[in-house]
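User: Write out your own:

AI:
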Amino acid sequence: MSSPAPADPSLSLSPVTRHPLQLIRARYLLPIAGAPAIEDGALLIVDGRIAAVGCYSELFNRTAEVIDYGDAVILPPLVNAHCHLELTDFPQWTAECGETIEPESFVGWIRRLIRVRRSLGADPVPASVTAGIRQLLATGTGAVGDILATPGALAPLLASPLYGRIFFETIGLDEERFIPALAAALASARSLAYPLSGGLSPHSTYTVSSRHLEQAIRTGLPLAIHCAESPEESLFLREGRGPIATELYAAAGWPLPEHAPGLSPVGWLAAHGALSPQTLLIHGVQVDAVDAAVIAASGATVVLCPRSNARLGVGTAPIGLYKKAGVSLALGTDSLASNTSLSLWEEIAFARSVYPELSPGELLSIATCGGAQALGLEQEMGALTVGSGAHLQVLTAATFPPVVELAEWLCGAEHQVAALWLGGIERLRQVVPC
């Protein structure tokens, strides 16, 4: 048996020699997708795809290259279904701009974000994206739903081993401005192909017009829309008043609508035909039972971002309503403008504390299978099943629980990522302190 060679620490997709038959082994293997954990589990990999899953003794093959991780857990990579990698360096940017005082409101946070971005321009964005990619890989994330407002910062993503979808962001109420911006975003999105496909992100229910939204829908591309994130958003959509009207619109010089839509954010999107199985609704905090039923019927996915919601003080997503209605769920970290890390393991640990309706197994499934399905990767990753790509992460720790307690233990963030495989190649190898 052999130990895996150290992975190239760079993020480039340089050619790598791969043995055609590999057997990857560890103390525990958790396939996800409802399958129980396997003690002394193993994966048989043939030409970069999973050919068998089971106990090592059953799968042992004398012709295979055996890679033994020993005291560790093998499971699928996590899928961060919503983040803004270009804002990874935002904490440093605020210091550079003297914007160190934390805003006291949701709209105040948005206005500070806009000021900082305008002050620094686009030059520092590619380095920020690169830093974000490194954080994702180091914490076991293999696929991402990234929102990109700076198309010039796309290169680091294309050079990375990540899978997923890049949603090009558009904002605006003025047709003379949003039409060319939407055309540019559409061209960027259509230039991408698997394993990083393209989509559009009409930013939110209060920063795009109905015409803007309808134009985005007509493209037929997957959409990611910030929706029902805050009480301020709901108040503005229902009644046309509140801080979004008096502060955000005033600061942007946008005219207020003559009549408020009189709808919830979910209702407004549904009225314009924006909800479909290709739609990601980001946050989904301010949602009632009617909204949840509408989302479920449409097949759209809600991407939960609990740490961001808590930091911005906008509330907690109604998980009980979502489960009852059968809404598809995924998990994201949002950006470092509203979170402390891009670790989805830390997001899972926090979610365990604020979503008691979700069992450990459900949370792990949402963070893997749920995200993969949301990004159109359900045939490729999300679970360790025969026929899927050889994508996996390896976790280690000082001590391990009994196998029956493994799911609960995994949701406690008491472990570290030792290795990450994507596309049948060990892309990351980390020395983990004992």
